[in-house]
Design brief:
The structure holds 2 protein chains of 2 kinds. Chain A is mainly alpha-helical. Chain A contains 14 helices and no strands. The chains are: A mainly alpha, B alpha+beta.
Chain lengths: 293, 356
């Protein structure tokens, strides 16, 4: 691949700005992050290690980590994130792959179809699923009409309902991440693979899949982190019988007014999710790091 | 060179994209071991035709016969046809050795045979010792060699080259031209190369198929195509011709004349295909016209040194503009614009003549 076929990076087109003006350009966002993102995290961290009397204590963490319920809820939440991630990969990969193979007009239509749900609030979409998955909803009606079931099955307020809802809500992230990477894969690689005797499946496994690893990592990190913290969808579609970390933290802070314990739970969730994403990224980088290096 | 039965036969191939005709009823027979170039301007259908042979494009009509067997309905992976792509299309996440072994593994070659075969192919393309490298650690010419080794490793029945040298700079291109030819001759593999570069086609191919607008305009050796183009298109595409309209007349046994509408008469030898007196059109290459005291009067428009020759633009008295290639030793560089000269068609030059 020659440099002539690659898009010219913007940095080489624009004159390199002086270092100080470069810093100036990122300043607004940097300030925003410091004040509204990083600062609350620090407050949270401080809160988690302070007792009722204000002294430094590990009591909140000891309580959280010695309580089996913490592990139960945390595990359930992570499992939910994993299911949603796997489901978006399974649904999103074929879609993204189709997008790069079809003509430009159909591609725009497919892109619009993916982005469209992003323009509707996640709460509205969740309520849509509430109706769809209900006992009197169209899914049960269809299954009954097909004669596959005798009486409505309970989908709503189960883990399946939350996974189904989150998959649809998070799908755009996965498709966009995969499409971005796949569209940069040279189309003649697949042709070369086939001319060398590899069928569609082998071409996919040996060529397209390894080359889409960066997109898989990026998309999975986004979907996983987002699904784990999807308070509204988890609560509405999961109902009262299912407890996930965001709701658990909410209960402890707002309802129980136990801010220290809630903060400790939040820190535990934050560290666990970050560790999983970091480990996944590092692992994939190590095995595939040479692709775009 | 022509055998009873061609090794690869294209029988009435048609490809349409919607209303656009990419390949328009092409018939072509290519012999075993032959190196054929598909030459034409962009959009003439040459790459589409190559993709039909490779199996990437399904023709709307016609058949591809390889060694007498119709392969039109076979998938690309079932054809065992090696292909080198314009941008090489090396798998960026695999080493050179894995790239070359890819086709062997796809064809389920015995494990113990793969490493020796990879080493053998690296030797053929003179890249031994590079097996552990990744494609992005190689130069363009080296990537080209690896792409060739990868295509040849599967012992293909046919080798297809899609503008194989287009991305290389001039010096490297000439080196790779002779390398490609050496390997092609060594292995005796039937090869089809797509190119828009007439010099490349002429220096490499046994036969050239000149294509335009989805059709083969002429199929023949470089000499045939250059000296006896069968259509004005071929004449114009191969070798920078200027066309002159006029009235054709017979001068003597060997020579013909063309009288332009402005009354200038030029004398030349005809390569055909038009061989009757009357309105006609001749194609003139710059090297077929010379400065001569005994010729038609003209005025110099410009003189540009171009390596061994000077390209001189002249206007005949009737307004006809011609280009001629004058040897530099005769001081052609110093012809000032506006100077009056005399030009004629070289008596030994053979000019193609077409119906107007």
């Amino acid at each position: 691949m020659t440099s002539a076929t690659m898009p010219v990076p913007l940095s080489t087109v624009m004159r390199k700005p002086r270092p100080d003006s470069g810093l100036l350009l990122v300043l607004p966002l940097l300030l925003y992050f410091l004040i509204f993102v990083l600062a609350p995290q620090i407050v949270l961290l401080v809160m988690s290690v302070r007792g009722q009397d204000g002294a430094l204590t590990a009591a909140n963490f000891v309580r959280a980590l010695s309580d089996p319920m913490t592990y139960g809820v945390l595990f359930g939440t992570l499992r939910l994130g994993a299911y949603a991630t796997v489901a978006t990969v399974l649904a999103g990969f074929p879609y993204a792959l189709t997008m790069v193979t079809v003509g430009p007009r159909l591609r725009s239509a497919m892109l619009l179809l993916v982005i469209l749900p992003l323009l509707v609030s996640a709460i509205v979409r969740t309520f849509g699923w509430l109706v769809t998955l209900g006992n009197q909803g169209p899914i049960n009606a269809l299954l009954l009409w097909l004669g596959w079931i005798d009486h409505p099955v309970r989908i709503l307020f189960t883990e399946s309902a939350v996974v189904i809802g989150l998959t649809q809500i998070e799908l755009p992230m996965m498709v966009l991440a995969l499409y971005t990477v796949l569209s940069r894969v040279d189309g003649s690689l697949a042709l070369a693979s086939r001319s060398l005797g590899a069928g569609h499946w082998r071409t996919f496994v040996q060529v397209l899949l390894p080359l889409s690893v960066p997109g898989l990592i990026g998309g999975s990190a986004l979907v996983f982190a987002s699904a784990v913290g999807a308070f509204v969808s988890q609560t509405i579609l999961g109902g009262g019988g299912l407890l996930y970390m965001p709701m658990y933290i909410y209960q402890q802070s707002i309802l129980n007014q136990d801010w220290g314990f809630a903060a400790a739970l939040a820190v535990i969730l934050m560290i666990t999710v970050s560790a999983i994403i970091f480990a996944g990224t590092a692992l994939a980088r190590r095995s595939q790091g040479y692709i775009h290096g | 060179m022509v055998t009873d039965r061609a090794f690869l036969t294209l029988d009435d191939i048609q490809v349409r994209y919607g209303d656009a005709v990419a390949v328009d009823h092409i018939d072509l027979g290519i012999n075993a071991g032959e190196f054929v170039a598909l030459l034409g301007p962009s959009g003439c259908g040459k790459t589409t035709l190559l993709r039909v042979i490779a199996g990437f494009v399904r023709a709307n009509g016609g058949a591809v016969l390889l060694d007498g067997v119709d392969i039109s309905t076979l998938t690309p992976e079932a054809r065992r046809i090696g292909m080198v792509f314009q941008n090489y299309a090396l798998f960026p996440h695999m080493t050179v050795a894995d790239n070359i072994a890819y086709g062997l593994r796809s064809h389920r070659a015995p494990k113990e045979s793969i490493t020796p075969k990879v080493q053998e192919m690296l030797g053929v393309v003179r890249m031994s010792g590079y097996d552990k490298r990744l494609p992005r650690q190689l130069s363009g010419g080296q990537q080209q060699r690896v792409a060739l080794a990868r295509a040849l490793a599967i012992s293909p029945r046919l080798l297809l080259l899609d503008e194989p040298l287009g991305a290389l700079d001039k010096n490297l291109r000439e080196e790779m031209q002779s390398e490609l030819l050496r390997i092609q001759r060594e292995l005796g593999i039937t090869t089809i190369m797509v190119t828009h570069d007439q010099e490349e086609a002429m220096s490499m191919a046994d036969r050239i198929a000149v294509m335009n607008a989805g059709q083969v305009m002429q199929f023949g050796t470089a000499t045939e195509i250059y000296d006896a183009p069968s259509t004005p298109f071929v004449s114009g595409f191969v070798g920078n011709s200027t066309f002159l309209n006029g009235v054709l007349g017979k001068s003597d046994d060997e020579h013909w004349t063309l009288r332009t509408s402005g009354g200038v008469e030029l004398r030349f030898r005809s390569a055909g295909p038009c061989r009757r007196v009357g309105a006609a059109r001749i194609a003139l290459r710059p090297e077929q016209i010379e400065l001569c005291d005994d010729g038609a009067a003209a005025v110099v428009r410009y003189a540009r040194p171009m390596g061994p020759n000077t390209r001189v633009g002249v206007t005949l008295d009737d307004g006809t503009e011609l280009q001629l290639a004058a040897p530099r030793e005769r001081g052609a560089d110093n012809l000032p614009a506006g100077m009056r000269v005399r030009v004629r068609i070289n008596p030994r030059a053979v000019c193609p003549v077409f119906l107007p």
